[in-house]
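Late entry, evening session. Most of the bench is empty. Finally got around to the prediction I had been postponing all week. Sequence below, unchanged from the version circulated by S.P.
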Amino acid sequence: MSISLAETAKEKGIRYFLISFTDLFGVVRSKLVPAAAIAGMQKNGAGFAGFAAHLDMTPADSDMFGVPDADRLIQLPWKPEVGWLPSDIYLGGKIVAHGPRTVLKQVLADAGEKGFQVKTGVECEYFILNPEGTAVADSADIQAKPCYDQQALMRQIMM
């Protein structure tokens, strides 16, 4: 155990932790845990029903446990009373080999052994909506697939 999440919660004013993992479809799944319970979760993990979280399991499988990675704690800037934690998922005391985080760690290790360094980035794409959030703010933006629409770009530049 690297850092005590219970102590960190007291020091930073964290009241809740989101213990999270990513399912096979790339959806982040989480359990909200009060800071008073984080010590037990840090040691034993938070229980999840794998079949309910798209990890290729059935209701016959026992619960899996997300063991939080305390070194990766992020205190949410927009809600500082909440700390987000990625977790490694275990089933029957063994890491779930097909868990996306487990696979990523293996890919990074394999690449490193071959002398490669994996670099990633985020390509943010967005639409500006009207104040009600019911439509795209540019009323002339009527393309069915508006990505990369030169006319929309030109309208924004001219405004």
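Two things to note before I forget:
The chain has two domains: 5-113, 121-159.
The mean pLDDT is 88.
Will write this up properly tomorrow.
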